[in-house]
């Protein structure tokens, strides 16, 4: 029952990411009450499953306590309280990593194929949570370009995720793919996989949208595009389509110097709907292109970007927002077409 409750909470959290509706906010208190031993990390994990269980408990607890701090301060987090929380969890994350390292060393060549895959996925989330999210939380979110310092970590995570797909057989060679991920669903050329456990779609999508290095973020997008994975409510094809639009939008904005306001919906939508293929054609014709992260100015960087669905009217959108708090919805025609074909 405890594991089932965690699965349902994980799905609820994903639903909130896709809808941002209060009704879908995760209710963690029931699970947290059962996780009183979350900080009793053993010297060495006995299995991948135990390591996963402790990791998820740490993540649940961290975001719960962060929200508690915000609620006590009427939506604002004080730097002192947040830094203290980050220090505590950095210590716990270090202990967790050491316990996982000891497990891997003790198993050595006895690690099974499934354990190798599980270990790689855990390492992906370890790096993303410990070296990116916790560190970035200490820096603060007021500087959009602060993500650039993690490019080398992003690159390593993408390589690890690509390796996971190679090991599971959940991908095809990128060069053999059409430009639209949904085509492969129709043609049935990919083997679908489904999981409610920790996966690779979420970190890859975050990298494609937060990393501004054009090579790294496109590789993350292409790994998503080459996969056929449904991880809870997160779909690799949907994520690839949304990531492609975000990349095109930000780079077009960067080349134009950025926008003063996202409220100019017509201009934003036109830029966002320009495909990756059109971008490449323009670049080949001699137009200037983005080559480094720092070439994307803060004015061109989105503070949020996530796909959402109108299930009644069967339409898909990309919700984007800037640092000023302005948000707009841009249609995702590729995904809407896929929904129409499922009628």
Automatic annotation (TrEMBL):
Keywords recorded for this protein, A-Z: DNA-binding, Metal-binding, Nucleus, Transcription, Transcription regulation, Zinc
GO molecular-function terms, A-Z: DNA binding; metal ion binding
InterPro entries per the UniProt record, alphabetical: Transcr_Regulatory_Proteins
Name of the featured protein: Uncharacterized protein
Source species of the chain: Aspergillus sclerotialis
């Amino acid at each position: 029952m405890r594991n089932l409750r965690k699965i349902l909470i994980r799905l609820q959290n994903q639903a909130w990411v896709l809808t941002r509706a209060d009704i879908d906010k995760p209710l963690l208190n029931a699970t947290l009450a059962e996780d009183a031993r979350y900080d009793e990390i053993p010297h060495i994990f006995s299995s991948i499953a135990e390591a996963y269980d402790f990791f998820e408990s740490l993540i649940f607890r961290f975001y719960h306590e962060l929200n508690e701090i915000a609620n006590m301060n009427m939506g604002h987090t004080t730097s002192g309280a947040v830094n203290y929380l980050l220090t505590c969890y950095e210590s716990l994350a270090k202990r967790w990593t050491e316990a996982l390292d000891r497990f891997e060393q003790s198993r050595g060549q006895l690690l099974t194929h499934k354990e190798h895959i599980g270990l790689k996925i855990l390492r992906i989330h370890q790096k993303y949570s410990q070296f990116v999210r916790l560190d970035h939380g200490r820096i603060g979110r007021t500087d959009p370009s602060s993500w650039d310092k993690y490019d080398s970590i992003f690159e390593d995570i993408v390589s690890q995720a690509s390796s996971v797909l190679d090991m599971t057989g959940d991908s095809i060679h990128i060069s053999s793919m059409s430009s639209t991920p949904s085509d492969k669903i129709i043609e049935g050329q990919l083997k679908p996989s489904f999981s409610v456990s920790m996966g690779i779609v979420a970190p890859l999508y975050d990298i494609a949208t937060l990393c501004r290095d054009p090579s790294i973020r496109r590789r993350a997008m292409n790994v998503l595009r080459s996969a056929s994975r449904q991880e809870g409510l997160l779909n690799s094809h949907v994520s690839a389509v949304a990531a492609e639009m975000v990349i095109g939008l930000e780079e077009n904005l960067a080349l134009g110097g950025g926008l003063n306001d996202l409220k100019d919906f017509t201009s934003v939508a036109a830029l966002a709907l320009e495909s990756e293929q059109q971008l490449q054609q323009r670049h080949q014709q001699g137009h200037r292109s983005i080559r480094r992260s720092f070439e994307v100015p803060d004015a061109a960087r989105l503070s949020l970007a996530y796909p959402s669905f109108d299930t009644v009217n069967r339409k898909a959108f990309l919700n984007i927002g800037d640092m000023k708090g302005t948000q707009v919805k841009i249609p995702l025609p590729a995904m809407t077409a896929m929904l129409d074909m499922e009628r």
